[in-house]
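Comment thread on ticket #2218

A.B. wrote:
> Attaching the input chain for the structure job we discussed in standup.
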Amino acid sequence: MNIVYGENEAGKSTIFAFIRSMLFGMERGRGRASLKDDFTKYEPFEASSYYAGILKFEVAGRHFMLSRNFNKMEKKSELICIDDGEVLDPDQGDLEMILSGLTKEVFDSTIAISQLGIEPNSNLIAKFNNYATSYYMTGEADIDFERAIEILEEKRKQESKEIKIALEKREKKKEALESEMTYIWRDVHQLEEELDSLGEEIEIRKKEKKKKQDVTSTSSFRVHPVELLFILLATAFAFVVVPRPWGYVSAVVIFLLGIIYVWNRIKVSKNQIKTEPERILETLSKENSPLPLEQLLWKKERVNEELLDKKQAYYNLKEQLQDLDELSDLLIRQEEKRKAIEMAKDKLLLLSKNLRKDMESRLNDKIGEIFTEITGDKYEKVFIDEDYSMYLLTSEQKIPLFKLSEGTVQQLYIALRIAISQMLFKEELPFIFDETFIYFDDERIKRILNYLAGSKRQVIIFSCHKREMHMLEELGAPYQKISL
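C.D. wrote:
> Ran it. Output below, let me know if you need it in another format.
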């Protein structure tokens, strides 16, 4: 038990800030914040290059020396084990490991109790649960259990997002394939109709060609054979029937007339001149005339080839669509990974819930034990619910904090800090009180001092009053006085 006594402005709070800064360092704020921060507050007026300190302490029987230089131009920190000379790096976690995972935030919320900071951080119990759960699950207090769950949730959301994006891409590709298949299938139907039409046209042309060949065989002469036969018969008739010599004359005349007729027919056919309307009509007929049979056959072949290509393209797209309907290996792996992450998160949450219930029960018992002792058995039990609200329990009622006196509430906060520090740390870290008891009456102070004296832990009390020393003497508890 150590009492650091000094009047106001003697430097008690400065020593308290020194211990805190040596353990956890001290950074200068930026901008306007630097005008009122601790760095500026405690910076020497002169010779700022000597803004440094040395702290010696003992942990588990080993002695250490911690030195820090806070000057921004010569900033340096060093941790040495005095027993064996081992050099450690306090800024790389060595100091935190030696102090059982003690961080600046936990220090302020548990073992260090200042005049205006007796009420612990509002998230202390939640952090304690996370801290303790991580420690009991993994053996490592520096593993942030809640952060682990947050990371799993972030990964689950990321996997879900990637799966959603992949499914959306697949759906868009599927819609594009279906649209393209629709257009190709429409082309297939048009080509099939065109192919049927060409087939019918070709059959008609073949029949017309055959008929034309039959007609041409009889109409290819300029003088019809029947006409020639008639001329020959008429000549023979005159020669045989008409009496001679007129029969010879008649036969010759008829034959000559026949020759003249044939000659004229041939001549007229050759020299026949078409009129302008006839020529125009003939030109239009040629332009509007159906394609030749050979061209129709060629066109049918090309249409058939195009039809086969379109059908092949359609079936290729159909296969791609079927492949899309089946989940890809990547999507399957992503979904399995998402489910595994979700299962891991659920398992951790369930395990955490069970562990936290156990830790909360133990914490309630521990706080109740301490609080009962420092209040003289006035209250039977302390209860912290799932929302981390605190209550006092008596045999008759459950009392919320706002119904209690300021002194009783501060006693409860001290009990909470002590209980959590005892459960969190393997090492028995010291309790530091900086003018903490200014609102306490003598009886409350005596009970707290009696409990602290019996705890066998190192206790440092900064005070501008002598009553703490008088009470310790009344209790018969040894202490060391340090006057400033």
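A.B. wrote:
> Thanks. Noting for the ticket: The mean pLDDT is 79.
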